[in-house]
Structure formats: C-alpha cells, structure tokens
Amino acid sequence: MELIQQVPELSAYLAADEAIDHEHPLVRETVAELRGDSTDAYAYAAAAYAFVRDTIVHSADSGDPRVTWRASDVLATRNGICHSKSHTLAALLRAAGIPAALCYQGLRADDGEPGPVHGLIAVRLPGRGRWDRQDPRVNKPGVDARFSLDEERPAWPVHPEAGDVDHPLLYAAPHPAVLRALRSAEDRRQLWRTLPTAL
Question: Model's pTM, two decimal places?
Fold first, then answer.
C-alpha cells in the first residue's frame, strides 16, 4: 500500500499540537531518558516504540475507565487506548526531530460489524526515503505488534475480504472525528460508543 502524506511539507509531521504536545516538560524528560547519550535515530525510535507499547497500559485491557488523549496526560497516567498511545509515540518521535504521522485502520469486530477505527503511526527515519507504519498497541495473547522496518507488524493484520480497510492517508494531526470523540467522552465506555467506525 502506498502511504500518502496529507500535508506535502515534512515539517508538518514535526509540529506540536494540543494532542501531540511534545513541548511539554514530561514529554521532553521522557525523550531524554530514552535517548541517553545516543544520537542513533533508529535505536531511539525502537526504544520509544517499546516504551509506549510496553509501559502504557491499554485501558480496554486494564479496565481503566479514564480517557486520555494528550501525550503528556498519557505519560502521566500510563493509560490510554490505541489513539492515545499513537499520539504519545508521535510526540516522543517528533520531540527528537523524527517525523511521525498518524494513520488509521478500519477493522471489523468479532460479530462482523465495523469496529472503532484503530490508530497507529508512521515514522520517517533518516536515509530511508519512505514512511514505515508502526502499531504501539500493547501485546497480549493473540496480539504480537512489533517495531519493524522490514515488514509491517501491526496488532491486527487487515483482511480486506472481511471488510477491513487500511487508510493510506498520513495525518499530521489527529483525525478530527477521533479527537472529538476522545475529548468529549466522560469515560471509556462512552468513548466506545462515540469513536468513529469509518473516516
């Protein structure tokens, strides 16, 4: 699948906004801890990915009712759904000068109905000349997402024959419908009812 930048200028994928608030002190502190003395962008990107995937709990797995959507809040609570985790990984990458985009999948639920849109990111590492999608959703039985530049290793592979959709557009900011649902939800239960099932 060819990934398409929503905004032609690469600088848009380094910008801070209300969700990807990479100028926040907590985001900057986390970047410094993950980076250490290394200047290797590849090693840092892999470390940031593992940090978000493994130390930020997915609230659907933990049962945590809180809804986080801003990267700094996700880091403070160590809690969030796929979109929140994607905002956080994008913030950690952008704060280190690595372009990161938000992207989405439309996945069918177990009953065959459209499920909430799934959020992941794409990263553009130096020298690669392309975007590589990464899915920071925490692993669990049946889910084995991994950082990979050779082949995509998402939490859930897309099955077009079942009605799943891979959206090729790379967003510089969270999709407005996703952000609106995150910001307005009183708790995760309400969020599940209001997250878009299509873009």
Answer: 0.96
